[in-house]
Please model this.
Amino acid sequence: MENITSGVSEIIVIRLTTYLRCLYIAKRKRKNIIKSVEIAKLCGIKSSVVRKDFTQFGAFGIKGKGYEIENLIKKVREILGLNTMKNVALIGVGNLGTALLKYQGFFDANFKFVGAFDLNYQKIGKRVNGIKIYDIKNLKKFIDKNSVEIIILSVPSAAVRSIFKNIDLKKVKGILNFTSAILPCEGKKIYIRNIDLSRELELISFCMKKCLKKEA
Ligand code: ATP
Model:
C-alpha cells in the first residue's frame, strides 16, 4: 500500500479537509474574506498552524485583511485533488451501502457513484438513488469500462477475499474500507482508508473511561 500523501503528513491533509469545511460555512454566510484567527476558531486549531499550513502550499493572504474565501477554497480543493470528478463504485448494497449511495455529500465533493455491486439476485438490477446495482461477477469489466478509481467496500468481512479476485488493482487507486478485514493490497500502489465503525465506538468507550477516571 502506498501512502499518496507522501511528502505531506497525513495530519496536515486531515487539517486541510477541516479548513475546507470551515471555508464552506464562511462562504454560506456570504463572507468574502476570512482571517486565519477566524479559521482557527472555527476549526479548533491554533492560528499560527493555520497560517503555516496555507503558506506551505502557497496560499497567501492579503496583509492585514485575511484570505479571499473563494480563492482559498479553490486552492485547498486543488491541493486535495478535488477539482476533477472521480468515479466511485460501491460493493455491498446492505443497510450501510444503501445509506452511502444516498449520501449527497459525496457528489458535492466531486465523487460520483457510477455503479453498485452485490451478489444478491433480489438486489441486482434495482437502483438506489438512481445508481444501478450490478452483479458482482461483472465488477472487473465495469471498472475498466467506467474508469472506476475508487471502491467503497460495505460487505461482510468474510466476502473481501473473493471480491479482490475481481478488482483490478492497477486501475483502482483508492479503497474506502468499511469492513474489519485487512485488505490484500500489500505492495500495491493503492491508498486505503479503513473505517471500522465498531472500533471507533471502542475508542470512544476507552476515552470515556479515561475521562471518568480523571473526574473521580
Ligand atoms: P449492512 O451490513 O450494510 O447493514 P446487511 O446486514 O443487510 O447490511 P451484510 O450481510 O452486511 O448485509 O452484507 C452487506 C451487503 O453485501 C449485502 O447486500 C450482501 O448481499 C452483500 N454481499 C455479501 N457478500 C458479497 C460478495 N461476495 N460480493 C458482493 N456483495 C456481497
Observations:
- The chain has two domains: 10-79, 86-199.
- Residues 88 and 113 are 5 Å apart (CA to CA).
- Residues 10-28 form the longest helix (19 residues).
- The longest strand covers residues 111-118.
